[in-house]
Amino acid sequence: MIHPWQAATWTRLCTLGERLPHALLFAGPPGLGKRDLAEALAARLLCDAPAADGHACGQCTPCQWRLSGNHPDLQRLIPAADEATAGSDDGGADGGKAKSAQIVIEQVRALQEGLEVSAHHHRRAVIVDPAEAMNVFTANALLKLLEEPPADCFFVLVSSAPRRLLPTLRSRCQQWSFSAPDSAALARWSAARDAGAAELLALCGGLPLAAERLAAQGGKAFHERFVRDLGQLPDGDVLRLAGQWESWLKSKEAIAAGFGMVMLVDWLQRWVADLVSVRLGGRVRFFPARSTQLQALAKRCSIAAASNCYNEFVRIRRVAQHPLNARLMLEDMLMRYARTFTGSQR
């Protein structure tokens, strides 16, 4: 599937024809459909008769193999945890042992063995997503394949954090950078969706698929509560709100939606980023519907205080994945936020 904002990139890829490099790196923020484009490109490469628009025909034998999930010349290197999530509704449990969130070296070794066998058709394609899920040993194993690739084998690496890849690995790939769609494309996307989509799109930094995923997880209700609760500060009871948020994060709805400490800290960080922007005379990026509230708050804090609060949240974000005590972390964050403002009771 090619998304509207990828049309120009897709056309460029198709016009390369036989000049297409054997290794590509699709790099950019999550939520732009890089994996979708990689799948479409792999389908095109394996198809016997691509259509005039470059897409796979969907009718030939290789396309039928691919659509059935059994194409022997299409390989995907993804973490076992992602495979489990996409599989059965038991979460991929295997005797209670959690699946790996990394692409492990055994997967690359299995790929190497598979590529030693002649292709079943005329080309082969390998998708690696996310490429940053490889540790140094796995990356070095893949690097050997990229340095001496099998004939007619194309690799597409997908990454939201390309700087985490080995420099030598990046140097073997032609990098294609992806960025958020322009304002016109985002306006068209929002207009075709339910009310509230524009707010979630802004919260996600203009990344449409990230906004879609958030909406599907009940993000609208979470967003509304977040803004409503934050409206109690800086003059409200910080400790009371911290307790409410601890219960919120432990609720069935939050757990089912994957709304946890990391996302909450991220939203707080974005809220304060908007506060800093307003204080500096800039625009509200993540919470545009709350511009009036943010402008009122900006009058109560200095540029230095707002900037310090943002930097503190950046540091907190680094440990939010595994907080030693969630309640204490929430209390600490909210007190730091409240202290940013002059005339507050906290």
Outline the structure in words:
- The chain is α/β, with parallel strands linked by helices and 346 residues long.
- The chain has two domains: 4-177, P-loop containing nucleotide triphosphate hydrolases (Rossmann fold, 3-Layer(aba) Sandwich); 217-339, Zinc Finger, Delta Prime, domain 3 (Up-down Bundle), CATH 1.20.272.
- It contains 17 helices and five strands.
- A five-stranded parallel beta sheet has the order 2-3-4-1-5, sandwiched between helices.
- Helix 6 links the parallel strand 3 and strand 4.
- Helix 14 (261-279) packs antiparallel against helix 16 and helix 16 runs antiparallel to helix 17 (326-339).
- The longest helix has 19 residues, at 261-279.
Could you outline the blueprint of secondary structure elements for this entry?
Elements: H1 7-16, E1 23-27, H2 34-46, H3 61-67, E2 74-77, H4 80-86, H5 105-115, E3 124-128, H6 136-147, E4 153-159, H7 167-171, E5 174-177, H8 183-191, H9 197-203, H10 208-216, H11 219-230, H12 238-250, H13 252-257, H14 261-279, H15 291-298, H16 303-317, H17 326-339
